[in-house]
Amino acid sequence: MRELDPDVVPHLSRFFFLRRESDKVVYAYLPHQALRTASLHPCEAVALALIDGERSWRQVAAALSAVSGEPPPEAAGFLARLVSDIDPRGEIVREAGASEGRRYAPEDFLVPAERLDLESRLEAPFAMILKPTSRCKTNCLYCYAPRQDAGRKREMSLERILQLLREAHGIGVRQVNLCGGDGFARSDFLSIVEEAVGLGFVTDISTKVPLTEGQARRLAASGLDYLQVSIDSADAAISDKMVGRRGHHAALLQSIRDLKAAGLYVRTNTVVTRHNVTTMAQTVEMLAGLGIDNIKISPAFPSQHLEGADYVICEEEAEALEEEVARLQRQWGPRGVDVLYSRLKPAEAMGPEEKRRFWFHGRGRCSGGRSAVFVTPEGKVTLCEQVPHHAPFVVGDLAHQSLLEVWNSPEALAMAYPERAAFAGTLCENCSDFDLCAVKRGHCFRDSWFAHRRLTGPSPYCPHNRLAA
Ligand code: SF4
Ligand code: SF4
Fold it and tell me: Full-prediction pTM beyond 0.90?
């Protein structure tokens, strides 16, 4: 349990959002490129709202005692349990660092007891993944994006996208991921970013496009606080080969310099394939030399939209890479440079026990239609960005529906919360783990589709799925 020092003044992270709904309060913790949501009892929400960056823990407990009628020691115990429960790592309720966090009015979170239902679905999404374009300025040999509709003709207009951002903000969406393609393939992309940041969204952008000095300055002036640049190697020839464009590497390095000079926080992502796997030490050194202190290393996985996957590293290469990354973390960590690494082992490389741990406990809860939605360049809505942008995945069309209408549509509900009957004829139909797997953690329709070409059925990671072993 977290120890709360009575003299310390806590504050709420700026990435923490509380929202009152008709039958509950919900919170979302939305740091860049991550999403966590849950329901709160109104008493919990009121207690959190008393943390205003001015009261010490002693004063928060006294205020909670005054509103609840509980003696101060009980109120302090309630706070300690609540904070430990929702925030064991101290990310949401912070006791150090900049104190200009979020503030809420406790009285906004009172919900009549007779209406209370902590199990009901979110009344609106918290995150929107918006793909303003499928176009791109590179042609990466590991491209994951479905680029079948990469033409500009069917893309939503700038005006419609700005309207959609305002609509999303109005219903409670607080994080927007402007993905692609590459947003910068649109000449009006900066206006989209400016609107998103101006509305107060946590705005995620990842790009590979070398930006001009002027673009870098305009991005910084928008207030954008975070930009991910993808750069694959310190070796220019390898880097250019991986993105299919000669001269790209040099231009991208200049772009990073310009972005940093404009005052933007830049983090990088390096996709690892067989082509660049031996260049990680030089790559980290080069990026650290450019002033990057957050370097992500992401081994490529087989793209569902490309023929063949001979670029993907094998298990032996992955093991050697993991050792190399651990060495780089030891080398650079003490110098203030975080080297992050994430790789999901292929299902066929996992043993039954490993699969069980991953499938029932390790994988994140599905956000598709539960806390997030995805919007295609034409304004079609699917529940997740990793599935094809066509039927049967499309659950709505923003050309003639509002975002909330789509969110509450029978199509969206049937996909986000499929009934057992929808799994008829599959291993899942009579599975004793159905509630934990498909209801609690969420059914992964991406996995089912790419494994079976249908929306339901066991994932290759399912420990009961012997065919995938
Ligand atoms: S994927 Fe299907 S069979 Fe596997 S645990 Fe989930 S519900 Fe059960
Ligand atoms: S459907 Fe699968 S890939 Fe998509 S959000 Fe859910 S768990 Fe993730």
Answer: yes
